[in-house]
């Protein structure tokens, strides 16, 4: 749902500091190379305008971005732990090492957020 909110900001406030910040942070957080191309319901676009007003500042989405980042990292961490357990069960040393590194990296990212 938050993902849709960010994409709605890009559609509702094109060429603004807020849109640029949301775009760059969305790509950084999701580690995506480009934004998803999805059609957004009118209700989502309306909600974005209602949430941010007529002329939002560039940092208007800070709290939402932080919560989104935490949720994305937590989800990735859970997946990494699952992969680690699978690798340990199959006794694949290379996969275990790779999964441990991924878990450590995600854990460090969570720590920088204060989680």
Give structural notes.
- This protein has about 120 residues and is mainly alpha-helical.
- The protein folds into two domains: about 60 residues, no CATH class; about 55 residues.
- Helices cover about 75% and strands about 0% of the residues.
- Helix 1 crosses helix 3, helix 2 packs parallel to helix 4 and helix 4 packs antiparallel against helix 5.
- The model has no long low-confidence stretch (mean pLDDT about 90).
The chain-level structural class is mainly alpha
Roughly what fraction of the amino acids lie in strands?
Answer: under 5%
Query: Main sheet?
Result: none
Helix-strand string: HHHHH
Tell me the helix content.
over 70%
Low-confidence stretches: none
The strand count comes to 0
The helix count comes to 5
Give me some keywords for this one.
mainly alpha, 74% helix
Topology:
Elements: H1 2-12, H2 17-30, H3 42-52, H4 62-90, H5 93-112
Helix pairs in contact: 1-2, 1-3, 2-4, 4-5
Give a quick summary of the entry.
The chain is an all-alpha fold and 115 residues long.
